[in-house]
Design a protein that fits this description.
The protein is an alpha/beta fold. The protein has helices spanning 38-51, 63-66, 87-94, 98-111, 122-130, 146-153, 168-180, 206-214, 228-235, 262-279, 331-334; strands at 10-13, 16-19, 25-29, 55-60, 114-119, 136-138, 159-162, 186-191, 217-221, 240-244, 299-302, 317-320.
């Protein structure tokens, strides 16, 4: 099985390490939120950079490479955000034109933000190779297009595959083709391909299961509303989070309804790092931040003056705060012991103060 291949603990995209040992890698998905205006696309990239995203992701296709112009029932979208569209109409409206791709990559370089894309067919891979894309994303709907995955794998560049709708066998096939084709750096994104995705169907425990079964860096492509699901994903091991991003949901577009606005993306970038920091590592040693709280533990103290040669009794020894004396568990053991010298009230009881 694919998971028997050498495991990827971390991968690198444009020099940035991605894995559970590093802060979550946040990808802002431009998708169709340019609304057909390249200047809006530029502004969206600027906003993503300002919000703290690690990368901006494009989509590379034409309506002709996605489908045919046909209004038969098979080609009609029924229900949901895109109800009433033909597939051709939807992709015609949502596309990021091929002629925009170079200016968008140039803009990303100028902003110093990583930019990569989702190719939807082999011609898109050829274009993106000419633009020296640093990584590729395979959309969940294309996760069963093994020829496309093989073509991307042949570039030897990092590949991110969304697993929405794919069952375990299909994911395994995609991973096998990617690895046998030459992909060494692979990320699998757990994904619910519904727009928006219902939170109660998120099944985020799948994130770690993907990592364990396939030996990959795992993450989340989150189509739910808001940032709660993404943050929960980080807590459950997501090393990469992908969210659709728009300047404003009020400027209606094909993907705007389930996209984050700039203040929300900024919050996701900040909060996801805090969640990751909070995970830390398993351990039971006292933490530096706890040292000042030691005084609030109970320990054994003299509560009355005790003369030399006098016995320690429940009347002169008690378990009280602060916590600088012997732990309370030793109280039965020391009662009846004889003080070596005078012990004044308020003295922390230590072994050397009395005879064994």
């Amino acid at each position: 099985m694919a998971g028997e291949i050498v495991k990827n603990k971390n991968i690198f995209i444009s020099g940035r390490a991605i894995g559970i040992d590093y802060p979550p890698y946040i990808v802002a998905e431009l998708s169709a939120n340019h609304n057909g205006n390249i200047e809006r696309a530029f502004a969206t990239m600027e906003a993503a950079k300002k919000a703290g995203a690690d990368a901006i992701k494009l989509q590379t296709y034409t309506p002709e490479t996605m489908t045919i112009e046909c209004d038969k029932p098979d080609f009609m979208v029924e229900g949901g955000l895109w109800d009433g569209y033909t597939l051709f109409e939807l992709y015609q409206e949502a596309q990021t034109p091929f002629e925009w791709q170079k200016p968008l990559f140039d803009k990303a370089r100028a902003l110093d933000i990583t930019c990569f894309s989702t190719p939807f067919d082999e011609s898109a891979v050829d274009l993106l190779e000419d633009l020296n894309v640093p990584a590729y994303k395979i959309a969940s709907f294309e996760a069963i297009d093994l020829a496309l995955i093989k073509r991307v794998a042949e570039t030897k560049k990092p590949m991110v595959i969304s697993t929405g709708m794919a069952n375990l066998e299909e994911i395994s096939e995609a991973v096998d083709v990617a690895r046998s084709g030459g992909c060494k750096d692979l990320v699998l994104l757990h994904c619910i391909s519904s727009y928006p995705a219902p939170v109660e169907e998120s099944n985020l425990r799948t994130i770690d299961d993907l990592a364990q079964k396939f030996g990959v860096v795992a993450g989340l492509s989150d189509h739910s509303l808001g940032t709660t699901t993404s943050l929960a994903g980080v807590a459950l091991g997501a090393a990469m989070i992908e969210k659709h991003f728009t300047l404003s949901r009020a400027d209606k577009g094909p993907d705007s309804t389930f996209s984050l606005e700039p203040n929300e993306l900024r919050s996701l970038c900040e909060q996801s790092k805090l969640v990751w920091q909070a995970l830390g590592t398993a351990g039971y040693e006292r933490k530096p931040a706890e040292e000042a709280s030691l005084k609030f533990r109970r320990s054994l103290y003299a509560v009355k003056d005790i003369a030399a040669g006098e016995a320690l009794t429940p009347e002169n020894i008690r378990k009280i705060r602060p916590g600088y004396g012997l732990p309370p568990k030793y109280l039965p053991q020391i009662l009846g012991k004889i003080a070596k010298g005078k012990i004044s009230a308020g003295t922390a009881i230590q072994w050397e103060l009395f005879d064994e």
